[in-house]
Amino acid sequence: MTEIFYKNNTGELHKLLMHNVNASEFISKLNNTSIEVLCAIEDGSIVCASPEFKAIEDNISMIFIDLVSQPNA
Predict the structure, then answer these.
(1) Superkingdom of the source (predicted)?
(2) Which residues of 17-32 are buried (b: 16+ CB within 10 A; e: fewer)?
(3) What pLDDT shows up at residue 10?
(4) N or C: which end of the chain has fewer CB within 10 A?
(5) Which of 47, 38, 42 is nearest to 21 (CA)?
């Protein structure tokens, strides 16, 4: 299964679920459209991520690292 998370031209976030579709092929067909792909996941693995998504993922990782590295109170 392929999951595509994207923003439309009004900035709304959407999720598209597809079976038997390759994410990279699908994304390549979106050129010159108003759809901005944030992330594509195939069979549970991220196969494509925009710079915006990577920044969010990095921020979450840093917060998690900060939380687990704090001594127990």
Answers:
(1) Bacteria
(2) eeeeeebeebbeeeee
(3) 86
(4) C
(5) 42
